[in-house]
Every structure is written in structure tokens, then in C-alpha cells.
Design a protein that fits this description.
425 residues; mainly beta; Porin; 19-stranded antiparallel beta sheet; three-stranded antiparallel beta sheet; 22 strands; 7% helix; globular; Fimb_usher; fimbrial usher porin activity; signal; Lipoprotein
């Protein structure tokens, strides 16, 4: 009996110590591999290793075509991201942030802050190959480049836009052809909504490194030093104040600010101003105003940009005929319970007095259990024609249709890009 009790007193502490010595089994990291494009001529693969606070990201493009003369395997981007609450630190390849104005570029280096996504109207597809500096165009840039304007930033990157296509809930898509001749349908809004923040300056992004060059054409081509900062603060009386700056070594530096405020039920107004200094030239200025309103009956968005001949940001460094004025507008109306009408208009004038005007109209209506959409685009210039698209969507099986077709948000309606003179599709 005494020996049994002695044995128990010996085993209990030993078992307790053994339990403490066994490490806790943590949840393993998640490994995800995704092929975003898969065909013999061009395949894009993305691999990620994910945990609660960190992510390793690697993507590459490969060609299985034995007749291909270009590189059969090209690195697109690779990075490591560490998350700490709302803030994140990213080391490797990333895309710079922009605010009410500015240029998004691909670069390799470091990015830290709470804002990691670029603006909604920026075409940031990681599969589009481009020549030269990897500047990401906006939808508005693509619209005016579709008019075959020589010397645009897209043409200098060997990017081209053939037309926009209907895209269901997204309103419109852009069919973009890259420097390798591959085409991709990209959904993006023509006008991005104004970003409003709460009190404080917790919305920011700081980055520096070297800009990517010949993206998706070569694996490790980097250019000059680059720095970018965007800080957005919520100020008293409901104002949102933003500061943005960007710098490209031996080329250009630009600094500016923006102010936005929601004016009750009237809408949201914004204004921005920036100044640039070019190493080989003088200084210039740019101003931008905007307004947007949304209610249950209609949506309205407007942006206007005016700049001096000398103003340059990173995206317009190589332009021989810079923008003088660019106006974008979009309106959406709920005509009836199951019918909506959207109209978009864009105009641009350069300092060489080259003017481009584009207009698009889209109507959606409920027909039976489905929705019919009719869209038309037209260029007001003499050397371009019009395009018309009609589509019908109907749910099958036991899926219940929507009570009304979804009204395209104004930022989701982009202009129809006419393909040629007098063409009706």
C-alpha cells in the first residue's frame, strides 16, 4: 500500500512535467497555387504561402510553345508581406499607391502602411506585358489611347485597346493587348469614387525602391530609384485632407494635396492641386475638381482636370503632347422598377489642340425572368464610327431573378470604344 502511494506521488509530477514539455501544435501554413491563365502559348501561375500574419507570393509566366522565340519562363512578381493589425510591410515587387492624383507604377522595394490597394480606375492586371517603365494606365488613359493617338503612354509601352465589351455586373470591360500580343479583358471603372476617412491620419502608404522595366518581358529588369508617399487624414468639420508625393531619380518630382467633403445629401465634392519639377525642364501645375451624388433614383459623377504645358508626373514623362484639359462624366438613372439607363461622356484636349470626344449609352430592362442590356458607343470625331451590343441574361433552374436589374454604379460604366469608321457590331 505504501509502495503504491509512493508510485502515484512519483508518476503524477512526472506526467505533469511531460504535458508541459509537449509543444502546442500550431495551425500549418496554407499553400495555394492558382493558374490564372492556362494555354500552350502563354500560361500565368501564382503560388502563395499564407499564415495568420504573413504571406509569400510568387508568380510567373510560362510558354510551352516549342516555336516561341521569347523567354519560356518569366518571373512576374515576388514578395513577402507581414501583417501587423491594420498595418502591413511588403518587401519585394509591389504597386505604388495614388490618391486623388498621381501615377501607379510597378517597383521592387519596400511598401509600408495601411493602404495597399491602388485606385479603382487603375488597370493593374499583373499579366499584361509592357515595354519600358512599368506605368499602370487608368481606364481614362486607355479610352483616349483607343483613338489611335500617337505618343500616348500606352503606345510607348506597346499596349493597345481595341474596344470595351459588356461585362454583366461590371458594366464594361476593356480588351487590352499587351507587348507580347496577348489580349486580356479587364474590368475597371472610368471614375473612381472619392476616398473619405474618419478622424485621424491612420490611412497612409510609404514606398521606395526601383521601378520595374519591361515587365513580363524580362524577369529582373529594374530602372531608376523611385519613392512614393500618400497620407490621408480625417480633419474637423468632416473634411478629408490628402497629401501625395512621387519621385523618380534624375527625372521628376511632384508634390500635391487634395481636400474632399461630403456636403449633406447634395453629394461629395473634391479638389486637388499638384506641382511638378522636371530635372531637364521647368516646373508645372495641375488642378483637379470632382463631384459625385448617389440616391435611390440616380447616380452622378464628374471629374475635371486642367494642367499647364510643363506639368509632368511619372506617367507623363515621355509625352510629346501633354494634356491641357480632361473631363469625365457619368449618369445612371432608375427609369422604372426593372429598367435603368446609364450615359457616360469623356473629352480631352491636348496642348497641340487635339480634341477627342467619346460618348456611351447603356440601357438595361427586365424581360421575362431575365435582363436585356443594350449598349452603344460613338466617337464624335470624323475618323471613328459607332458600335452597338445587345445581350440577354436569364437564370436557370430554381434561381430566383432579381426584382430589378442592378443599376450600374457610375464608376462602373465606361465608354464604348469604337473600332472603326462606320462599323456596327
Amino acid at each position: 500500500m505504501i509502495s503504491t502511494i509512493r508510485t502515484i506521488f512519483i508518476l503524477v509530477p512526472a506526467l505533469a512535467l511531460t504535458a508541459c514539455a509537449v509543444p502546442q501544435v500550431s495551425e500549418p501554413e496554407t499553400v495555394a497555387v492558382r493558374a490564372t491563365s492556362l494555354n500552350p502559348a502563354y500560361s500565368s501561375v501564382n503560388a502563395q504561402v499564407l499564415s495568420d500574419a504573413a504571406k509569400v507570393d510568387y508568380s510567373f509566366a510560362a510558354s510551352l510553345d516549342p516555336q516561341a522565340t521569347a523567354n519560356t519562363l518569366t518571373r512576374l512578381q515576388s514578395s513577402y508581406t507581414q501583417q501587423n493589425g491594420d498595418e502591413s510591410l511588403r518587401v519585394g515587387d509591389t504597386v505604388s499607391s495614388v490618391g486623388m492624383w498621381g501615377t501607379s507604377v510597378r517597383y521592387g522595394g519596400m511598401q509600408y502602411g495601411t493602404r495597399s490597394d491602388t485606385r479603382d480606375d487603375v488597370i493593374d492586371s499583373n499579366k499584361l506585358a509592357s515595354s519600358g517603365m512599368a506605368v499602370l494606365p487608368t481606364v481614362a488613359d486607355a479610352l483616349f489611347a483607343s483613338a489611335d493617338e500617337a505618343g500616348t503612354s500606352l503606345s510607348q509601352q506597346n499596349l493597345s485597346v481595341n474596344r470595351s465589351l459588356p461585362s454583366g455586373e461590371q458594366g464594361w470591360n476593356l480588351a487590352v493587348q499587351d507587348a507580347l500580343g496577348n489580349s486580356e479583358s479587364v474590368a475597371a471603372p472610368m471614375i473612381a469614387r472619392t476616398r473619405l476617412v474618419e478622424r485621424g491620419c491612420s490611412d497612409f502608404s510609404v514606398g521606395f525602391g526601383k521601378v520595374r522595366e519591361d515587365y513580363a518581358l524580362t524577369s529582373n529588369s529594374y530602372g531608376p530609384m523611385f519613392a512614393n508617399t500618400t497620407v490621408t487624414c480625417g480633419a474637423p468639420l468632416g473634411f478629408t485632407v490628402e497629401a501625395h508625393g512621387e519621385y523618380l531619380a534624375d527625372e521628376v518630382g511632384a508634390l500635391g494635396f487634395g481636400v474632399a467633403r461630403r456636403i449633406g445629401s447634395i453629394g461629395t465634392a473634391s479638389v486637388a492641386f499638384a506641382q511638378s519639377n522636371v530635372v531637364n525642364g521647368g516646373s508645372g501645375w495641375m488642378s483637379k475638381v470632382g463631384f459625385e451624388h448617389t440616391n435611390s433614383m440616380f447616380n452622378l459623377m464628374f471629374r475635371s482636370r486642367i494642367q499647364s504645358r510643363e506639368f509632368r508626373d511619372i506617367g507623363s514623362m515621355a509625352l510629346t503632347d501633354p494634356i491641357m484639359q480632361r473631363d469625365l462624366a457619368s449618369v445612371g438613372v432608375n427609369v422604372t422598377e426593372r429598367s435603368s439607363l446609364s450615359v457616360a461622356y469623356a473629352t480631352q484636349t491636348t496642348w497641340a489642340r487635339e480634341r477627342t470626344n467619346l460618348i456611351a449609352v447603356k440601357q438595361s430592362m427586365g424581360v421575362g425572368r431575365g435582363t436585356m442590356s443594350m449598349s452603344a458607343g460613338h466617337s464624335l470625331e470624323d475618323n471613328f464610327g459607332s458600335s452597338v451590343f445587345i445581350s440577354y441574361k436569364r437564370p436557370f433552374g430554381g434561381i430566383k431573378p432579381l426584382a430589378r436589374p442592378m443599376l450600374d454604379d457610375l464608376e462602373e460604366l465606361d465608354l464604348q470604344l469604337p473600332q472603326g469608321s462606320g462599323d456596327i457590331d
